[in-house]
Specification:
It contains four helices and no strands. The model has no long low-confidence stretch (mean pLDDT 76). Helix 1 crosses helix 3. The protein is an all-alpha fold. The longest helix has 12 residues. The protein has one domain.
């Protein structure tokens, strides 16, 4: 049975991204019409990692956090689709 892990010699590379790069990726997801999945694919990042960075961004722990108390919600796909659907009706 094979064991998978991130230990020395496992052959799995973990890429460390700078705070500036993480911030750029998160800000890219905030653009109108942006999809976290598409941004993740474009940058070779798991979408779940971007959602984690978004949480850190909202909490002001990623740097460049939005002004205010850090509790501002990110634009969700659901709200975007609802707003788009309301203009069609």
């Amino acid at each position: 049975m094979e064991e998978f892990g991130l230990g020395v010699g496992s052959g799995v590379r973990v890429r460390r991204r700078s705070a500036a790069e993480r911030l750029r990726v998160v800000e890219e997801t905030l653009e109108v019409g942006a999809s976290v999945a598409r941004v993740a694919l474009r940058h070779g990042i798991n979408a779940n990692q971007i959602f984690q960075w978004q949480r850190l961004y909202r909490e002001g722990k990623l740097g460049g956090a939005p002004s205010g108390n850090g509790q501002q919600p990110l634009r969700s796909t659901t709200s975007f689709l609802q707003a788009d659907a309301s203009t069609v009706l």
